[in-house]
Amino acid sequence: MLRVKSLLPFLIFLAAQVCIAQQPAKSTPDSGCALPLLSNPDNARNMFNDQQEEWLGDILDQGMRKEFHLIDDPDGYLQRIGERLLAALPPTQVHYRFVIVDSPGLNSFGLAGGRIYIYRSMIAFTKNEDELAALVGHEIGHMIMHQEAIRVSDNFRRIGIKEVTDKEDIFKNWNRFEDSYRRLKGLKIDQMEKREQKEQLIADSIALYALKRAGYDPAQFAAFADRSLETKGKTGGFWSDFFGTTTPESRRLRQILKDSAPLPAGCIAPRPNTSAFEAWQRSMIQAKFESAKAEIPGLIRQVRLNPPLRNELNYLTFSPDGRYLLAQDSSGIFVLSREPFKSLFRIDALDAKRAQFTPDSNAIVFYDKELRVEEWNIATQRQAWIHEISANCDYSALSPTGEVLACVSPTFELKFIAVKSGEILYTRKNFFELTFSDLLAAIFILESSETEEPESPLWVNLAFSPDGRYFLGGHGDYSFAYDFVNRSEVKVPGKLKRLVRASFIFTSAAEVFGVDGERSQKAFRIAFPSGQVLDEFPFGGDVHFLPAINANYVMVTPAGVARIGAVDLSKKKTTMGYKTAGFAIFGDWFAGDDVDGLLKLYRLSDRSEIAKIQLPGSPLAGAKASTFSDDGKWLALSGPTRGGLWSLESGHEAGFSTDFDGGFFTQGTFVGRFPGRLKDPARVLQVNLNPLSMHKLYDLELTDELPNRDASSGPKTTSWQMEDLLFQMGPSTDKKSGDYRLDIYRLDIKDVVSNASLWHLDFSRFRPRLYYLRSSNTITSVVSRDEEIKRAVAQDPELQQKFKGFSRSDKRSLYLVEVYEARSHRSMGRILVDSGNLSFRVKGAVAAGDSVFVVDSKKRTLVYSLKSGEKRGEVFGNAVAVSSAGDKVLIENGRGVVDLYDTKDMRSLKHFTFPSRIVEASFLNGDKVMVLTADETVYELGLANQDVGSVAKQPATP
Question: What residues form DSSP beta bridges with 471?
Answer without folding.
Answer: 464, 482
